[in-house]
Structure formats: structure tokens, C-alpha cells
Write a structure and sequence with these properties.
Shape: elongated
Strand order of the largest sheet: 3-4-5-6
Largest sheet: 4 strands, mixed
Helix content: 25-40%
Number of helices: 5
Strand content: 15-25%
Radius of gyration: 40 Å
Number of strands: 7
Distance between the termini: 114 Å
Length: 204
């Protein structure tokens, strides 16, 4: 009987010890949720995305608006067209006129200079800035030959394009450093191209 009681006491003690032993707790991650061992916060992600967008905006080209003039279909007047260019320079304007068939392929601007009639800017005297004519001198590598009507439209296209975009009063056209001359028109040192108001806006 004593043996039985001792065995029973041993069994109860074993159960008691098992009940007192700490149970190891294992963390579980809900399905669909990943751990973030690097400590990345939503704010950090937002700032990174913003930085990427800023870099993309800075790399994007900046376009400038310009206007070019081309002959209409029957060479009786000009058509004014708006163009958006990555940079408005004398060569990009000439390139636009080449694309429109006004000038020949591979026409190059040898030089372009502006004299007189400075426009008003910060700290400039208004009267001094607006005094005198603002004259541009454009020297091209070549100018196409054409009939009288076509030649007039070609010269007016060049004149209007440069006079408007550079805010000139008039334009002196040279070809390889010499005054413009053709079978129909001969210009001297005091001859200039002026703005032609005979044009229409490009129809959309």
C-alpha cells in the first residue's frame, strides 16, 4: 500500500512540474504581411519617390515657344505657325524654315548679330533702352533661287520669323558675308527686310 501511495505521489508531482514549466511563445506573422528588418517607414518611401520625380522633372527638356512664317499654298501671303523648341536660336529657327521648305537642306547660320534698340531690362533707363532701331544681321550659307513670287515669300518668311522672335525693327540678310542678290532682287548696304503684315494664323 505504501508503494502505491508513493507511486501516485510521484505521478502527481510530475504533472505539477509540467504545469509550472514556462511555455515558449512563438510569434507568427499574419499572412500577406512581410517583416521590415531595415526599418523603412512610409515617410521614407514617400521622400524617395519624391526625389525620383524631381530628378525626372529636372531631366525633362524645357520647351520655348516661337513663331515661324511660311508661304501659303498659292504664294500670295504668309502663314504664321507656332512651334515649341528646346531652345530658340538662330539655327533652330533656320532648321524650322528648312523643314517647311522655305530654305534648302543644310543651310547654316554663319553669324547673327543684333545692334541698337536695346529692350528695357532691370535697372535700365527706359528712354535710353528704347532709342534707335533694333537691327539684326543674318548671314546664311545659302539661299534658294526661285521665281519672283516665290522669292518674295521666301524673303518675307525669313524676315518675319527673325523680326518677331528677336523683336527687331528690320533685318539685314547676307549670304556668305555678301549682300543678298538674285536675278530679280539686288540689295545694297542700306537695304533691309522689314516685317510683312500680310499673313494669316495657322488654322487648327
Amino acid at each position: 500500500m505504501k508503494k502505491f501511495i508513493m507511486c501516485l505521489a510521484g505521478v502527481m508531482m510530475a504533472f505539477s512540474l509540467a504545469a509550472c514549466t514556462p511555455t515558449e511563445v512563438t510569434e507568427t506573422t499574419p499572412s500577406g504581411v512581410q517583416r521590415n528588418p531595415e526599418g523603412i517607414t512610409p515617410e521614407m518611401v514617400a521622400e524617395s519617390n519624391a526625389a525620383i520625380q524631381r530628378e525626372a522633372d529636372e531631366a525633362a527638356p524645357i520647351f520655348e515657344m516661337a513663331f515661324i512664317y511660311v508661304s501659303n499654298s498659292d504664294a500670295t501671303g504668309l502663314v504664321r505657325k507656332r512651334v515649341d523648341l528646346e531652345g530658340v536660336t538662330e539655327q533652330t529657327l533656320v532648321d524650322c524654315l528648312i523643314e517647311e521648305g522655305v530654305l534648302d537642306e543644310e543651310t547654316v547660320v554663319n553669324s547673327f548679330e543684333i545692334e541698337g534698340g536695346e529692350k528695357v531690362g532691370p535697372g535700365m533707363d527706359v528712354d535710353a533702352a528704347e532709342s534707335g532701331e533694333r537691327i539684326g544681321t543674318l548671314d546664311l550659307s545659302k539661299v534658294p533661287e526661285s521665281g519672283t513670287a516665290g522669292e518674295t515669300m521666301m524673303l518675307n518668311s525669313i524676315a518675319n520669323t527673325f523680326i518677331e522672335n528677336y523683336e527687331l525693327d528690320k533685318l539685314k540678310l547676307l549670304v556668305n558675308g555678301e549682300n543678298y542678290e538674285s536675278g530679280h532682287i539686288i540689295q545694297g548696304d542700306e537695304d533691309y527686310l522689314e516685317f510683312s503684315s500680310d499673313y494669316k494664323e495657322e488654322s487648327k
